[in-house]
Every structure is written in structure tokens, then in C-alpha cells.
Amino acid sequence: MKGFRVAAVVALSIGVSACAGRIVPPGASADYPSRAPHQPSPRPAPRPQTGGSAVQPNGPSVSRVSSGPVRILPSTPLPATPVVAVPGAVNAAQAGLIAGPAVASLPMTEPQAEAARAAFLLSCPGLMRRTDTSGLTQGADWQPACQAAANVPSGGARDFFARYFEAVQVGDGRSLATGYYEPEIAGSRDRRSGYEVPIYARPRDLIDVDLGAFSTDLKGKKVRGKVQGTNLVPYDDRTAIEQGSLEARAPILAWGADPIEVFFLQIQGSGRLRLPDGGIMRIGYDSQNGRDYTGIGALMKARGLLGPGQTSMQGIVQWLHDHPEEGRAIMRENKSFVFFRELSGAPQGAMGYAVTGQVSAAADPKFVPLGAPVFLSMDRQDVTGLWVVQDTGGAIKGSNRFDTFWGAGETARAVAGGMSARGTAFLLLPVGTLARAGLPSQNGTLGAPPQF
Fold this sequence. Notes:
Blueprint: H1 10-14, H2 92-95, E1 97-99, H3 110-129, H4 143-149, H5 157-164, E2 165-170, E3 174-182, E4 184-188, E5 197-200, E6 207-210, E7 222-228, E8 231-233, H6 238-242, E9 252-256, H7 259-268, E10 270-274, E11 280-288, H8 296-302, H9 313-322, H10 324-332, E12 338-342, E13 360-362, E14 373-378, E15 385-391, E16 401-408, H11 410-417, E17 421-430, H12 433-436
Parallel strand pairs: 3-16, 4-10, 13-15
Antiparallel strand pairs: 1-2, 2-17, 3-17, 4-9, 5-9, 6-7, 7-8, 10-11, 11-12, 13-16, 14-15, 14-17
Helix pairs in contact: 3-5, 9-10
């Protein structure tokens, strides 16, 4: 979920996730799962939403967890093929590929595969259009699978993935998965008693600079700031903004009731405001101040502030509430600040498409083509299975690092807030990818896959 798809906080436990509409500023520390600003992708302009129930993504859903108290059930991950890591690899092609298991042998359920097929089909236009910075595929590679995805018969989703994809291990394959969710907090469109925390829209004087336009050596690098005289200088940090520096420079979209909840809303990158009249206002990431992201969970853990059982997101939030002055100072050590826009419909990921709870995930596009399926074989049953990478996150960097989206509600909050799973990741790439790399496939003879 664009923005601080900041991974929900698993990370909090690791360091403390947007992305609904997910996804942390450039250079963010990987200890805070991600939902922190992703770089925005072009999206249709939102239509004003006046309240009522938020529109959910179309398509099937999959239930990886039951409602009620979260139970962590262990699972044994499939082993990765031992390899020597390539130091300094900047994308998946440099990290190296190894054939994974035959896709048909992966333990995915038919409902899980069908939900992933629908998410994959939604992502197909962007998948075929975008430049794949991972170095693994070209847009045309995805065309056969995308065409077939629209015509899969009932009960045929597992077979679809087995026919059109081959599993690939990137580098050593050892994976870390965290979680993020779409929070719901108390908010108001107007300032009133009990609603005193401003939720800002993008400031009018915030400037985005593509450094690659000035030098080929800086291709892919961007900064944000503001103009001061004849200079571009860093934009206001969190402390300055919270002390009122944006007055008359940035519209206030809404007002929150709890500064700590607003802080974590920024980390998630999008969420719902429950209005005083019971209506819902949905907001999502629009931009960020360009300052480096700092995960406060890691700071608190390093300083010995968190006791046993407090390293989850819920534990960190409770500590901040119990220590308001110290908590405010710690939150301000994260200089990054997110600006929002009102959304119509479902939360969107970095591709500009709706993300689906328990189906969509975030990853580093230098190591995973955005829109690609991935099979996570982890040490937890709830996160093991098929996901579709539709989002990014500033703290989600490097190969085999994933941030799983769990939707909205208390169960999603509980699962995402405590998600930290390790195991093995297998990308599902179009049949023929390994052959082009000169590698054999576990799927057998390579070539044009059969049509349904």
C-alpha cells in the first residue's frame, strides 16, 4: 500500500509495514517492516468518498487464519539449495538463479491458488508494461500466462500455475516475511474536541527531484525537499511538522484522536478513519518528506525499554501510551513523515492496483518483478503458501524479503503485528525463464506451455 506499506510491525518486534495502498523512505532501515514510503506509481485520481462502507477488491478471498485469538502453528520450510551468496548483488539477476521444485509439487490449496490467480490477472497490464528492474523477465514473457489467467476453468487454478510457471530460487533463497495491515483509527474531517492531531495532505511546496535527469550516474535516484532562496534544501522533519511548521503550507485532510495511532497509520501507509457519525473515510499514501526512516522498535529494544512480551506492535503501542513524553521523543527520532490523500475504493499497492488481504505482498522490485507470484515456505503455517507481489516498502529491501498484507480488522492487526517468519522463497516466473538463463527446470522440457 503505497506509502509506509511500512510493514506492519512485525518488524516492530524486529525493529518494528504500506503498503494497503502499502508500502518507507529511501534508505530506510530494514528493521521496521515496511509500510513506509514506497515511491509512488501513477494511479487514477481518487474520487471523493463521503462515508459508508469502504469498497473491497473484487475476486475470491482466501482465509489463512481464523478469527479470534491468533495461534501460531509451526511449519517445516522446504529446504533452499545451498549456494554461496553473491556479495553486493544489486538485483536478482546478479544474485543468481537456481531451479526450484516443480510448481505442481508445491503445497498450495485450490482456494489459495484461485485467489492468487485473480490478483495476478489484475496485475497483468502493469506486469507486461513495466520495466523489470530485477533483470529476470521482459514484459512479453508474461503474455501467455496473462492471457491464460483470464480463462481458467473452475477448480483449475493450481493447474494453471503448474502449466505456466516455473519455481526459481534467487540467491540463497533464505526468506524473511513480516506483515502489514490496513489500520482503522478514530478521526474526523473537522477539528473538534477529542480530535486534535492533524493528518496532512501533500504540502504545496514539497518538491520531487529525479536526479537521473541531471546525471546518468544518478539514474534511479530521487530526493525530496523544498526551495529556499535559490537552493533546494531538506524538507521539514517530523519534529518541525508536529510543532506546526506546515501551517498554511499543507492542507489538513482530517484530524486524528490519538497521536500514536496517527504515527502508526503513517507507518502502514494507508487506513480507515472511523468518523464521529460512524462513517468511514479511507486515506492512502500520497507522498513523504524525503527524510530517512527510522524504526522505533529497534531503538526501544536496544535501549532496554521493552520487557518480555512487549516487542510486538501491540506491546510497543502500549509502552508509548504509558510513557507519553518519552514516547513522543522516540517517535520524533523517526524524521520521516507521510502525507495522505483521500481514497475511493480499496487500498492500492505500488503498482496502482487494489491489494487483497492474505493474498498480496510487498517486495523489493530489484529482486522480484512487481506482479509476480511467489511461494513462501516458512516456519509458520499461516504465511506459508502462494502470494502475489503487488506492493513495495522502504524497509523491504534485498532478495527474499517479503511483507505480507493481511487486510483490515483486529485479526489482521494481530497477525501482522506479530508476523516474523523465516524459511525459503520461490518466485514463480514464466516457463522459459530458466532456459534463457541456461538452467534446467524441474517442470521438465521447456517451451510454449499448453493452452486450456
